[in-house]
Amino acid sequence: MAKVKNKKRSSSDKVHAKKEKLNTKKSLNPFEVHINKEKIRVVGQKRKNDRGLPGVSRGKAIEKRKRTLLQEYKIQNKSNQFMDKRIGERNGKLSEDDKVMARFTAVRIKAHNKKSIYNLADDEVLTHKGQTLSEIEKFDDPRSDDEDSFEGNSGKLDKDFVEEAHFGGGVLRNTGREGATSHKDLINQLIAESKKRKAEKQQIKEETLELTEKLDTEWKDLIPLVNTNKSNDEEMPKQKMDDYDKIMRELRFEARGTVSDRLKTEDEIAKEEKEKLEQLEKERLERMKGIFTDENSKPTHRSADDLDDGIFYEEITDDNCMLSYNKEGEANMQIDAQLNGKEIKIDNEKDDKEDEDENGNESSSDEDMETESEDSFADLKEESSESEEEVDGDAQDPEKVIEINDELTDPKEPSNDGSENKTPTTTERQQNIPPRDLQDKIKQDLLKRKELMEQARNELPFTFSLPDTYESLLKLLENQPSHHQGIIIERMIKCNHASLAEGNKENLGLLFAYLLQYINDLFSEATKDTIKSSCDILKSLLPQIFELAHLHKENAHNSVLEVIKEKYEDYRKKKKLHPGAELLMFFRLISLLFTTSDLRHQVVTPSFVFMEQILLKCPPRDRGKLSYGFFITTLVLQYTSLSKRYSPAAICYLSGILHMAIPKSGVKLIKVLPPFKSTSSDLVLIGNHSLDLCKDLKMDTTDLFSTCYDDEFKIRIFHNAVKALSEFNENLETLPSCVEIFEPVLKYLEMIPLQNYPVIVQTVAQDLILRLQKQKENRQLRKIVREAEKPKALRLYEPKIIEIYDTKRHKMQSKEKAEQSKLLHKLRQEKKGALREIRRDKEFLGRVKIHRRIRSDKERRNKVNRIFAEAAMQQHELSAMDRKKKRKK
C-alpha cells in the first residue's frame, strides 16, 4: 500500500478559513438572553429592543473602558508618552505579514529615491555672478612657469652641475690643480646664477605684458576705423525713448546698497548731531577770538617771508609796527611766537649807539611820517583791543594776542590794483615803518578781520544746555526773532538728546512743560499788534514741540491734559465769557500732537467736549467773539475730518452766522438756536458789493481783537462759513439724517440776498444750495409699517387627531412649544444617561483601585513573610551556634 503524503495547507486556504470563522455567528446562551416585556402590544410594530444581552453588553462596555478610561487613568499626572510610529502599528486592521510588507516597501522606495554621493548633477547649470561658466570668457595667459624650462633658462639645476656635484665625486674628487673651488662656493655660485635667471625671466615677462596691454589699447582705438556699420547706424533715425524705458534704465543702473551700508540707529544719529554742533560752536568761538581756519576768510595777500609756519605775532605796538631784519639776518625787534603749541622768544640786542650814529641825521626828518603812521593805526588798535576784551574777558592781559596773517608782497612785484609798490626808502627801512600801500592793506585786513569777528559774535551759539527754570528759558528766548527761537530749541534738543546721558529724558519733559507755559504767556498777553508775531513764534516752535512730545509721550499727555483741566476750571467760573486766545492755540496744538480720529482719547475727547460747550454757551456779542467761535468750528472740522463724526454744536454755530446775515423785519421773526438771538442782524450786507474784487477772503488773527463789524469782515466770515458748511456736508453725506441736519442751513441760505455779495461768494453759496436741494429731492423715506397679521381661520368642528398615542395624555401646545418640550425631554434623558455612565465609570475605577490595592497588599504580605522566614532562619542558625558554644564549654 502506498504511503500517503502530508498535504500542507496554502496561505489562501488559511485566509478563507479565517473569513469563515468570522462569518459564523456565535450561538447564544438562552440563559443570557433577557426579554423586555411590553405593557401594550401594538400589532404590526417591530421593536429592536425586545431582546437584550446584558452580559455581552456589560463585557463590551468593560472592554471599552479598559481601552479608554483605564489608559487615561494610568497616564494621569504624567507628561511623557510613548508613541509607536512604526508603519502599521496604529492601523489595527493590518496583519503582521501586511505590516512587514509595508515596512519593506517603504525602505525600498527610500533607497530608490536616494541619489549617489558621486552624482554631480549633470542636468544643473552652474553659474557665477549671474553667468554660466561656459559664457564666461577669460583672456588670461594659461602658460605656467614650468614652460620656460624648455627654453633653457629656468632656475633649476643644470645637467653639468648634477654630474659634477652628485656623480662626479663631489667634494671627494681630487682635481689635481690648485685654486679649485670648493663645494660651498659652487652652491653659492649656483644660487646666484639661479636668482639672476629668475630676475631675467621676470623682466621678460613684464615686458611682454606691457606690450600686450599696449597692443590692446591701440586696437581699441582702431575699432571705430575698422567698423563698417558706422554709417548705417548714423543714417537710421533714433527712436524716442518712452518714459517707462527711462525709469527702467534708471532703476537698473541705480546705486544699490551693500551689506556694509548699515542704517544708523537713533542713538548714533543723535550723537553725530551733537558732535557736529559742538564742532561748529568751537569754530565760532575761534572766529570771535580772531582765529580763522577757513581759507576763504584769510587774506589773499602773501609775503615772501611767509613760510606757513603757524606763528602768531604780538599786537603791533606804536614803536615797532613792522617786522624787519638787519644785514646779518637777525630781527630788529623781539618776537613772541607760538610754533606747534610751544612758545618761542627771540631777543635781538643791538648797539644803540651805532643805530643813533647811523640814523641820527634821518631821524628828525622822519618824525612826521612816524607820527602819521601811529595816528592811522590808533583807532584800529583800540577797536581790536576792545573786541578782544569782550571775547577773552578781564582775566587776560590788556595786550591781546591777535593772529596776524598779513602777507606782505615783494616791493618789486606789482600790486593787485595794477599800481607798482614803491620801494621803501632808507629812512623807512631803518625806522621799521611800512610803506603807505602796505599800511592800507594791513588796515583793510584788520578791518575785515574785525568785521568777521563781529559777525561771529552776533551769530547764535550752536550748543545750549537745558534750562533749570522757566525764567532761564525766558531769558534765553528774550529779544530773539521767531526763527531764532525755533533754532535755539532745536539745538537744545540735539545737544541734550535722551539717549546721550541719563536724566536727559526727564529734563526734556520739563522743557516741554516750559514751552507750554511760554505759549500760554505769549498769547494771554497778545494784542492786535503782537498777535501775528506770536503766531510766527508758535509756528517756529511747533516742530520742536512735536519732537519733544514723541520723545516722552506720557509726559506730553499729562502736561497737555493738565493745561486743559486748568483752563476748564477757569471757564466754569464764568461760563458765558469766551476764554483767552491761548486756549485756541492749545486746541490747535492738540490736533497736531495727538490723533483725533479715535473714538475715545484721553486728551482729544475732553478738548472736543470743551469746544462744544464754548460754542453752545458763549454768545457772540461782537466781532472778536464771533471770530473766536468760528475759529473753534474750523478746529472741530479738522478734528472730525477722518472720523466723520457729527458735531451739532459746530453746525448750529455756522447756521447762526448765516442767520445773522438775513435781513429781518419787525413783524416776522426767524427762529434760531442759542446762543444766537432771533433779532440779531449784525452781518447783514446793506450795500451792493457784487462788483468788488475780493483778493483775500481768509480770516485774520487780528479779527480776534476787533469789536466793530465792517463790510469786508461780513463778506469774509459769510464766505468762510459757507465753505465750512460745505465741507461738513461732504463728511456727513453718508448719514441717513443728513437732510434733516442741513435743513435749517438751506432755509437760511434761501433767505439771504446773495446779489449783494461778490461773484466768488455767490458761486460758493449757490453750489451749496443746489447740493442740498439735490440731496433733498433724491431722499427716499421708508415709513415704519406694522407687520400685517394673518387672518384667523374659522373654527371648524373636526375630530382631534393625535399622531402618536402612548398611554400619556399630551397638552394641546403650539408647534414651537412642542419642539421645546421634546428638546427638554431629550435633555433630561441624556442627562440621566450621562449620570449613569459616570456612575459606571466610577465603579470601574473603584474596582481597578481595589484590585491594585489587593495586589499591593498581597505583595507586601509576601515580602513580610519572606523577611520573617529569613529572620527565623538566621535566628535558628544563631541559636545553633550558641548551643555549640555551650557544649564546648
Descriptive account of the structure:
With 889 residues, this protein is mostly helical. Among the domains are: 281-324 and 332-347 and 371-458, no CATH class; 464-618, Alpha Horseshoe (Serine Threonine Protein Phosphatase 5, Tetratricopeptide repeat), CATH 1.25.40; 647-778, no CATH class. Helices cover 54% and strands 2% of the residues. It contains 27 helices and 6 strands. A two-stranded antiparallel sheet has the order 1-2. Strands 3-4 form a two-stranded antiparallel sheet. A two-stranded antiparallel ribbon has the order 5-6. Helix 16 packs parallel to helix 18 (553-573). It is extended and about 145 Å long. The two termini are 88 Å apart.
Give a topology summary.
Elements: H1 11-23, E1 34-35, E2 51-52, H2 54-67, H3 69-74, H4 96-113, E3 127-128, E4 131-132, H5 159-165, H6 183-226, H7 230-235, H8 243-252, H9 266-288, E5 335-339, E6 342-346, H10 352-363, H11 367-392, H12 426-430, H13 436-458, H14 470-477, H15 482-495, H16 504-524, H17 531-551, H18 553-573, H19 581-593, H20 604-617, H21 623-639, H22 648-660, H23 711-731, H24 738-741, H25 743-751, H26 759-778, H27 815-888
Antiparallel strand pairs: 1-2, 3-4, 5-6
Helix pairs in contact: 9-13, 11-13, 15-17, 16-17, 16-18, 16-19, 17-18, 19-21, 20-21, 20-22, 21-22, 21-23, 22-23, 22-25, 23-26, 25-26
